[in-house]
Amino acid sequence: MALRYFFHLGYLGINYSGWQKHPDGLSVQQVLEETLTKVFKKPVYITGCGRTDAQVNASQFFFHTDIDDAWDFDLLFRLNKLLPDDIAIYDIISMDGLPHARFDAIERSYDYFIHTYKDPFLNSCSSLYLIKDWDLGKMQQAACLLLKYNDYHAFCKMPDRNEHTICHISFAQVAMNEKGDRLRFQISANRFLGRMVRIITAKLIEIGTGSLTVDEFEHYLIHPQETQLIKPAYPQGLYLSKIKYPYLDISSRSDFVKLLGVGF
């Protein structure tokens, strides 16, 4: 009888076309399935806790798979030895029953990092916006509005691909470091739509730089079916940073996002 396992991992997305397998480029899912297939010498298919866009990172991610037979080797060590340097497996967790890595998740959290000065050491892990003056107060005012509304049709790249566009946001905060040259946007919800976090981030950037008002931002929360021009923020600064289940709530094994957040 096959047993279900949750795999806890993290990855840098810069070299991938996203989590999900598709014909247009190399995905994280494809690399993991090929590696597991190589280790077990038979096809292994996995189900992720969600989808991340091309070049988006995940400091915490889970997938599940069913494995027929127990293994007599150090699977964690072998996988990490075979996987590329930008994908790491942290834990392999045996689960009771058939829990689902995607459908059972009750909360997902993202972090988005911005730096406002050119720095070659940040370019692959934070998004560069060469902007000097930010209105942090208005950005946070807009972020607080996200908790009052739940239809995000206007903040989705392709809303018609979803059964519905209702999302319940439980936390949203914009912070700036002491020097005033780096920003961090944090958001948590039960689910997110395609490119939703990057679209919201782009709108917050417009608010912080004076090209969009808080009232204009709220208008599309009040009237979600109205079309608007959407241009997502850059992907490099975005991290899927926390997945919570009713039966599983653990911290990421990587401290990298914590280090990026030092000073906020």
Keywords:
264 residues, 24% strand, Alpha-Beta Plaits, 2 domains, globular
Provide structural commentary.
The chain is α+β, with helices and mostly antiparallel strands and 264 residues long. It has two domains: 3-94, Alpha-Beta Plaits; 107-245, 2-Layer Sandwich (Alpha-Beta Plaits). It is built from six helices and nine strands, in the order E-H-E-E-H-E-E-E-H-E-E-H-H-E-H. Strands 1, 2, 3, 4, 5, 6, 7, 8 and 9 form a nine-stranded mixed sheet that branches.
Summarize the structure.
The chain is an alpha+beta fold and 264 residues long.
List strands and helices in order, with pairings.
Layout: E1 3-11, H1 28-40, E2 47-48, E3 57-67, H2 75-82, E4 87-94, E5 107-115, E6 127-128, H3 136-145, E7 169-176, E8 182-189, H4 196-208, H5 214-222, E9 238-244, H6 256-260
Parallel strand pairs: 3-9, 5-6
Antiparallel strand pairs: 1-3, 1-4, 2-3, 5-8, 5-9, 7-8
